[in-house]
Amino acid sequence: MSSHPSENIPLALSTNWFLATPPTFPYPELRAHAPISSATYTWEYIERIDPDPSNLTTHPGVLSQDWTVIGAVQWELDMSITKIRVQWNTSDITNTLRSDIKHLPSSAHGPRGNTRELTREQLLLASQWYAPHILSFARSRLGTTVADGECWSLASAALQHTRGAAVREGHEPPQPSTGRVHGQLVLDWDVSSLVPAAGILQAADVRAGDVLELSDAHFRHIRVLLGGLASGEENVQVGEHTAIVDAVEGEKVSVVEQNARVEREVSVGAYDLGEMVKGRVRVFRPVGGNGTEKMSLNGLLLATDHFVFKLPPGLGVVYSGDWHAANPRETPDPEFQKPPPHTTL
């Protein structure tokens, strides 16, 4: 396998996958190249009449079609997209066949690989799309062991489950967990900052379905006994721990977690930031790979790219136009049979 899926893309043109109706996309060689998160395609044709040099008197021209197939795949590795375009003329497929490849890095990552900052509205939309599936998965696993039983594995598996559910609903899938990063950071709070715990969860809009990360945390709970005549102290220390937020109330975060109170088992728990005397809290909002836009793969297919098309010498036409890919269709749309704009004779 290549170091990155966008490298050494196998076009497999000799298999004629693009001639099938509908085209076979992603074709087997592309599927085998690297894990694909999602894929889509479109095709179009323009009819043309070329002069018949063998008999210009009785046969004014030969009817043929200029075909274009455009496909796009979104790679599971980093949610980047590769677009493939294949063009040919039906009168001479072998000699007119040509192809282009275009790679689009994930817009959700900056030059250092950090998640692009989303607006509050986009973060809310991400929660509405993904949180129900994350919570449903986590709650349904209570009392069981997920994967290797580590705390991180529950969050990772929940996001992986949500990726498939999101695609089925017509949304782009959320980014998978990478280490202890599970989307966009919405809260980063350390006790040593001296910022009070009161109100920080609400200010950051922490919601059910977010992923909580604790680092070197120490919680101290004072219990009042015998009607106030005595008190007891309960201390809980956490090195590194991952949990899924189930509810937020004041300074308290209820969670679904694994390998916490019950070893290597999914259970419920709670952490009160008001009782935290040491450590760091981070909360991540699972987000889509391309900025949480409806069907990001189709959205990027719809992005305008400028190409120059040159027809063989029949009509002697050279025209330029914008490549607009659309949603997959069973039959060619009449609108797609029109020549592109800016035609020059």
UniProtKB/TrEMBL annotation:
Residues 326-345 are annotated as: Disordered. InterPro entries: AIM3_BBC1_C. Residues 116-290 form the BBC1/AIM3 cysteine proteinase-fold domain. It comes from the Eukaryota. This is BBC1/AIM3 cysteine proteinase-fold domain-containing protein.
